[in-house]
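Take a minute with the sequence and fold tokens given here and flag any structure token that looks odd. Thanks in advance.
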Amino acid sequence: PVLFKSLALSILGNPEGFRPEEVVDYSLNGVEIAPNIVYLEGSWKNSNDNMELMSDSGRVVLIYYAKALNIVAGGNPNEIEVKLDGNYLADDKGEDVIIESGKSVSQISGHRLYNLVSADSYGAHTIEIIPTSPGLRIYTFTFG
């Protein structure tokens, strides 16, 4: 796995960029989303090994090509909504995702790997991770 710091330094797509040890307000307005590049929305603290959501709302967007998508995450107990290609997950939901009131969500409670997407075949997809409160820390993405 690649550390999120490396991801942020090399492939963070927001024009605001990666600013070590700063809280940065990221926006997706007018930003064209390119494959294999991480994009953020909201106020995120740029730490050496993770990005931590500081605002009440935020979003992480990534276009990827794989069957499975995982994140290494942690922080305060936090619920995230997960969308694939603009829709809540159903058949392609990972083992750490549940369907709750029609939404696909994952409970982030401890620092560990979370399986968000598990599809039957490889394909290009857009993942959206939408935290419902501050405190989410994302360390890295892994793919299968």
Remarks:
- The helical segments are 4-11.
- Residues 4-11 form the longest helix (8 residues).
